[in-house]
């Protein structure tokens, strides 16, 4: 009997096919690709700031400044709301990216300037640094120019920004002209003249659509300012007793050269 059972088991083992067993492979969890964190480097922060500014300008142009929200700007730039507020306090600030950073750089440059250097040369190089901020991002600068013409609050903010640069320039010059006759007045006038030259060049560059060589234009303009300011600054002598001093201010459309010619002729007749 035992022999018969063994024979049956042997026969079944020989004729039966093995049943394959499939064990599903355990797939490894997908590792998400690391996100690029542009904001970790100075270059990366400028890139994010520029992207936000450009996205904002395009949205402002398309749907208006008031109708555009911070969330829309962040989404258009491909970043989150929190990232936006790491760079800007409000959507008004996004119109002027980098101004606070550049103003700090200007202050640092002037504080570190050689006390023996020509103050006009120092101020000229510093004005170039400010202009470079606009030239480095021409698309943003051109769109901002269009926007500030349409939105009064932004125009006021731009004027305030310009005034900050002028006050920094004047403070530097007051230190350089300290102790000189009329030093405070000279500092205020020169600072205003340098800023006016910078703004004039910037406006011409913007009107050209960014085609002009603004940096060379600024250097030429500052040379004219330096030439105009190279005279002696001192106390204005008081009029002697018995002299009549008359100052007239007349609004005219005549060119400056014509007005100057008439003044020279009038003074010649008086002398």
TrEMBL record:
DNA-binding region in chain numbering: 69-88
Transmembrane segments: none
Domain of life: Bacteria
PROSITE patterns given in the database record: HTH_TETR_1, HTH_TETR_2
Gene3D superfamilies reported in the protein's UniProt record: Homeodomain-like, Tetracycline Repressor, domain 2
InterPro entries recorded: DNA-bd_HTH_TetR-type_CS (IPR023772), Homeodomain-like_sf (IPR009057), HTH-type_TetR-like_transc_reg (IPR050109), HTH_TetR (IPR001647), MftR_C (IPR041347)
A Pfam family: TetR_C_14
Annotated ranges, domain HTH tetR-type: 46-106
Entry keyword set: DNA-binding
Listed GO MF terms: DNA-binding transcription factor activity; transcription cis-regulatory region binding
Name listed for the protein in its UniProt record: TetR family transcriptional regulator
